[in-house]
Write a structure and sequence with these properties.
alpha+beta; 8-stranded mixed beta sheet; 5-stranded antiparallel beta sheet; 13 helices; 43 strands; about 35% strand; globular
Length: about 750
């Protein structure tokens, strides 16, 4: 070796040593969490700002309003980028009071002259509650109480009235006459007009059970009769007397709510019932069409595998079926996990409707006329349409989000209504959430990816950036000054040939020569998706990474985003394929040189609690520890609409229900199981956990149980109990996965 080469190698070595020293110095200068509490509450610092809060497009879409600060509403014009204060509530008082005005949410009138504020919200179920509603005039800055103790309220499209439901009846308030008119008067206990009971609201995703017609002439509404639905009672065991809350809750095979659709013509208060036979099924959606006085009604049979669409005359109630869809599994009508309430669309100004269906194996958009004739498929391919944002009848274009780039991403596209000229409007890799202007000219794009915290941008529909609304510099600064474990995306193929996507968070100061314990943090339910190309913001995961765990999540079979066959393979056999994929994930991880296969845990809540317990018992020995939160342990104990959608009906599927029950496999427990539940959980009743404990004890198996009586479905019910719950989770891992006991 000549001297020049020797000198070069010496310089290179010195450079590498200097680089490594610099890396070590930077790493040592970064802050670490001093305790679990600090890590849990770091989630907000990692999430950062979501951008403008409570965005409402106004003036036809030429501006949007947003909340700025605590009590100020501003507007922003994309055209000239001008920002104005439209509402300053700093000095505003409740009418006839000295109390400062406070509100939870608001909506604009279509003419942008009035704002309807929701105040004094008192929750009932997941989406619903009782509130007081106030109207604020932008012109004269006056504030008026228009609906007290109403469950829902909405301004009419013409801005002249407000409709609302109170006490199971419907009302309107007319701004011109300043008078309230009662539209229905037949409400009784468990019989409501314009209000859903628990199961319809929870499992069909809507809180408001009535709709204004686009011309403000009619209100269509559900009447819900729950008088024959079994009552469920629950208590938090406080005090010395037996005090119970109760709600109508139909379990599998029970009597369901009976619903029918009524329409009221506002001018004469004439009421007409739509002539659609309910049978043993459901009416999960209604839609006003672009024709005056014509309503579309969606009917599902009880198994939810046969959808019928009817067109009904609002004045006569006469109806005719125009379309139907059948499935060998189930028919989707909304997407709970993506926050998408509708898969059917009736744009104004055209006698066409659009329907997202997975009939060809993937969820795609189909275009029909009002006779129910299929005009064309708007999209096609081995990917899914996940959200339709805007259909423009003038330009004949459809704007939609899809998985075409990757099931791990959501990207915005535009295409002609005949399916031609499709092009992508978002360019950055990641999960994009889009808020579209009603005039089809602008959209607000909120996105992140594994390397980029949330970014919020205002763009036009050509894709051009108008303004960066949020860059989250504080998040960038935070991860630069603190230890942060990035999420990594990976995939593998199961032993039966199924490709599976996973995410991995490695320990801080990861050393590939060491072997680390694993926490599989899962959910797994039908249509849900746990892994995206998005920024990791969960504080508990960061704490686990700091304390030496590998954290893994899985898009198991049953997840949405991968097509019909991948998602709906779980039909009538919940648990089988999801648990298989979790066990296969563990087998894949076990082959990695830096994974300790003898120290693996699985943790989940709700459906995830079902899966963390079911997997532990049906694949014994794979996981050493299972952490189970609010689990369904036997689907015969859960509600009718959700369960029968995925498991079919009783008694014909009795054996399939037994095969999907956690309790069936209690004798197989090998390892440690921690279960947490609340006696006030109105969603997954604590009976599920007690039956599992009974089955385990009958089999001579031990499990650790924690009851948080007032905690509802989330188990924890305060900041203190949230911290306590995760302290218990973490200590359990330390005690039984790391064998480093924590008191």
């Amino acid at each position: 070796m000549n001297n020049r080469n020797r000198l070069g190698l010496l310089l290179l070595a010195a450079s590498l040593l200097a680089h490594l020293s610099l890396q070590q110095a930077v790493a040592q200068s970064r802050q670490r969490y001093s305790n679990l509490q600090q890590a849990l509450f770091s989630g907000g610092q990692l999430t950062g700002s979501p951008g403008p809060r409570s965005v409402n497009w106004i003036e036809g879409g030429s501006k949007f309003s947003f909340i700025d600060g605590q009590n100020t509403i501003k507007t922003f014009s994309p055209k000239d980028q001008k920002e104005e204060v439209i509402f300053d509530g700093a000095q505003l008082k409740f009418p006839n009071s000295d109390r400062p005005f406070e509100y939870g949410s608001f909506q604009w009138s279509k003419d942008s002259k009035n704002i309807l504020f929701q105040s004094n919200f008192r929750p009932i179920y997941r989406r619903s509650g009782i509130s007081d509603y106030y109207v604020y005039s932008v012109a004269d800055k006056s504030l008026k109480l228009v609906a007290k103790d109403a469950q829902t309220a909405e301004l009419s499209p013409d801005g002249q009235k407000i409709g609302y439901e109170r006490g199971g009846n419907l009302f309107v308030f007319d701004f011109a006459t300043q008078q309230e008119t009662q539209l229905t008067n037949d409400a009784k206990p468990a019989l409501y007009n314009g209000r859903f009971g628990w199961v319809y609201e929870e499992e069909f995703g809507l809180a408001q059970a009535w709709e204004w017609s686009p011309d403000s002439k009619f209100i269509a509404f559900w009447q819900s009769d729950e008088r024959q639905v079994p009552m469920y009672r629950l208590t938090d065991y406080k005090g010395f007397d037996e005090k119970y809350d109760s709600l109508p809750y139909p379990r599998v095979g029970d009597t369901n709510p009976i619903v029918r659709i009524g329409v009221i013509e506002i001018a004469n208060k004439a009421k007409q019932w739509m002539k659609v036979d309910l049978g043993d099924g459901y009416i999960p959606r209604i839609y006003w069409t672009s024709l005056e006085g014509q309503l579309a009604l969606m009917h599902l049979n009880r198994k939810q595998n046969h959808l019928r669409l009817y067109m009904a005359n609002a004045r006569t109630g006469d109806s005719r079926q125009i379309m139907e869809e059948t499935s060998s599994t189930w028919v989707d009508i909304f997407d709970f996990f993506a926050g998408i309430n509708h898969l059917m669309y009736f744009p104004a100004g055209v006698q066409e409707f659009y329907w997202v269906s997975d009939r060809d194996g993937y969820a795609h958009l189909y275009r029909y006329n009002y006779s129910g004739k299929l005009l064309n498929a708007v999209t096609s391919g081995k990917w899914e349409v996940t959200y339709v944002h805007h259909i423009d009848p003038k330009t004949k274009k459809v704007y939609f989000t899809s998985t075409e780039a990757s099931p791990l991403e959501r990207q915005l596209f535009v295409a002609d209504v005949d399916g031609k000229n499709k092009r992508r409007l978002t360019s950055v890799a990641g999960r994009h959430a889009v808020n579209f202007s009603p005039n089809g000219q602008y959209f607000i794009d909120k996105y992140s990816n594994v390397n980029t915290p949330t970014q919020v941008e205002l763009r036009d529909t050509k894709g051009q950036l108008i303004k960066a609304l949020e860059t989250n510099k504080r998040v960038w600064d935070y991860i630069a000054s603190h230890d942060y474990a990035h999420k990594e995306l990976a995939n593998f193929t199961t032993s039966d040939g199924q490709p599976i996507d996973i995410s991995i968070i490695k320990p801080i100061d990861f050393d590939p020569s060491h072997k680390y314990p694993v926490v599989l943090d899962i959910y797994g339910g039908p249509g849900a998706q746990s892994v995206y190309n998005e920024f990791a913001t969960t504080g508990w995961h960061q704490w686990l990474a700091q304390t030496g765990y590998v954290v893994v999540s899985v898009n198991n079979r049953g997840s949405g985003g991968y097509g019909r066959d991948f998602e709906k393979i779980v039909y009538e056999k919940l648990g089988k394929y999801e648990s298989l994929d979790f066990a296969e994930t563990a087998a894949y991880l076990a082959k990695l040189p830096w994974i300790d296969a003898s120290r693996m845990a699985i943790r989940g809540h709700s459906y995830g609690g079902y899966m963390s317990s079911y997997t532990m018992l049906t694949h014994p020995g794979v996981f050493k520890v299972s952490i189970v939160g609010a689990p369904v342990t036997d689907w015969r104990l859960y509600d009718s609409i959700y369960t029968e959608r995925y498991m079919g009906l009783l008694p014909e599927n009795e054996e399939k229900y037994k095969a999907s029950a956690v309790t069936t496999y209690a004798k197989n427990l090998a390892g440690k199981m921690f279960i947490a539940h609340s006696t006030m959980d109105e969603n997954v009743h604590v009976r599920n956990t007690f039956q599992l404990m009974n089955a385990l004890e009958d089999a001579g198996k031990d499990a650790d149980l924690r009851i948080y009586p007032p905690g509802a479905h989330g188990v924890a019910y305060s900041a203190n109990t949230q911290l306590l719950l995760y302290q218990q989770y973490t200590a359990y891992l330390e005690n039984y996965l790391k064998n480093t006991p924590v008191n």
